[in-house]
Design a protein that fits this description.
Layout: H1 8-15, H2 19-27, H3 33-60, H4 63-85, H5 89-115, H6 124-155, H7 157-165, H8 170-194, H9 203-210, H10 215-248
Helix pairs in contact: 4-5, 4-6, 5-6, 5-10, 6-8, 6-10, 7-8, 8-10, 9-10
């Protein structure tokens, strides 16, 4: 059984549902109408363009082109995370790029080679979607964690220096702030994972079922996708924090000006 297609007329009818939140924004005088309409318009245009591009990407199925696409995703994710955290480009851009790329390739290829056992792991049908899923989850976790980590350091510098002054190593002194960042960024992930299948049905699994996959297959894919995104998010965050450490502190362990000036 194939997937029922959605015509462009039906798509337009479906988009009319956005009138519901827009109406309540208007009634509540919330300043979100313009941003909502702009975001929706950008989403439609971007997804249509991506859909067109992916059509040719799947037809070419070139490992080189697929890898270049992943590099582009990493660049966009790096730019987005740098902007959302307000950190200086020289402080966080390179650690983010290297951490996201290395983790996506390591965890993604592990899944494709050792779990799916694909003979051609760079097959666009599998390689591109898996890398996209990993990148989206890593991005959100890293943004939350980096904000929490550097906010904590700037807010409680005296604690950091107190720990150093009492014999703690640099790694030991920043551990409380790293712990706080990890707890804040992963608490929602753990909560979501705990209720999968009971309270919520993930979009990936629903998409596979609507696409004609058997529920058992869709469930196994969802289990693995949840695990690899969770693991990749943690690994990427640790790599980013490790690589950003030397750029964030001077030779004497003092925190540099890591935030961009307003």
């Amino acid at each position: 059984m194939g997937t029922t297609d959605i015509s462009y007329v039906s798509l337009a009818v479906g988009l009319l549902l956005l009138a519901i939140p827009v109406y309540f924004f208007y009634r509540l005088k919330a300043k979100l109408i313009c941003s909502t309409l702009l975001a929706a318009a950008r989403m439609v245009v971007q997804l249509l363009l991506i859909g067109l591009y992916l059509r040719y990407l799947f037809e070419w199925n070139s490992p080189l082109v697929n890898f270049v696409w992943v590099l582009l995703m990493v660049l966009v994710a790096t730019f987005t995370a740098t902007k959302r955290t307000g950190l200086r480009v020289r402080t966080i851009a390179m650690p983010l790029f290297c951490g996201l790329l290395a983790t996506a390739m390591a965890v993604g290829m592990y899944f494709l080679v050792f779990v799916l056992r694909l003979g051609h792991p760079f097959d666009a049908r599998y390689f591109v979607p898996i890398m996209g899923i990993l990148m989206g989850n890593m991005l959100s976790v890293n943004v939350i964690a980096l904000n929490a980590f550097y906010d904590g350091l700037q807010r409680e510098q005296q604690l950091y220096y107190y720990l150093l002054g009492n014999g703690a190593t640099h790694a030991e002194a920043i551990t409380p702030f790293a712990r706080q960042a990890v707890e804040k960024s992963f608490a929602p992930c753990i909560a979501n994972m705990a209720v999968l299948g009971i309270v919520s049905l993930p979009g990936t699994m629903i998409g596979q079922i609507l696409g004609g996959s058997a529920p058992g297959i869709a469930i196994k894919y969802q289990m693995m996708i949840t695990v690899i995104t969770f693991s990749a998010s943690m690994l990427s965050l640790m790599l980013v924090l490790y690589l950003a450490d030397r750029r964030s502190f001077d030779a004497y362990g003092r925190l540099r000006g890591v935030r961009r000036k307003a």
